[in-house]
Amino acid sequence: MRIDARDFEQLAREHRALMRDYGRVQSRCSEQLLAQARRIERLDAQAVRLRAELIVRETALAWAREDLAALEQAIPGLPRRVRLARHVEALLARNRELMRERTRGEPPAATVLPPPDDAEALEASLRAADLVICQTGCLSHAAFWRVQDHCRRTGKACVLAEQPEALRIVRIHKAPASN
């Protein structure tokens, strides 16, 4: 088989065309490899930043937990006080609701007892109460100390309110047990 000049020229042209296409494909592959390498570098840098942020957050959380534990150890009864404070907030909200009902003329759901003048009546109403909310302005000086002493002796929650005109000794009725 003999190759003449025309066939050789045709073969050379095809070879050049293939080499150009091969060069373009090779350039495109090189560009894609570079783009992927840059993307991998960006993702690696992002991963390092995210790990650092996570470490900072976990460290801050660990410090906060240590501070909370130290605070709880430094203040005896803190969890109970927090629960009581939340309970007081709920009771104050209920009191505001009752005061709104009272101003609208609706009967309140809780019984408001006037502070008794004699010690026995005061003690009896305190025993009947689930929670005592009082202010020095709503009780006589001696009655205020008796109320605080009663709460201390019985372990009953005793809350001092800031507005004497808004609060009195309140009895909260418990729902009757259903059988």
Set out the fold topology.
Layout: H1 5-74, H2 78-104, E1 111-113, H3 119-128, E2 131-134, H4 141-154, E3 157-160, E4 169-171
Question: What integer value in Å does the Rg equal?
Answer: 41 Å
Mean pLDDT: 78
Please tally the β strands and state the result. Answer: 4
The low-confidence parts are: 107-114
CATH fold topology of the largest domain: 60s Ribosomal Protein L30, Chain: A
Q: Percent range for helical residues?
A: 55-70%
Strand-residue proportion: 5-15%
Looking at the overall shape, the CATH architecture of the largest domain is 2-Layer Sandwich
Please work out how many helical segments DSSP would assign: 4
- Topology as a string of helices (H) and strands (E): HHEHEHEE
Q: Structural class, please? A: mainly alpha
Largest sheet: 2 strands, antiparallel
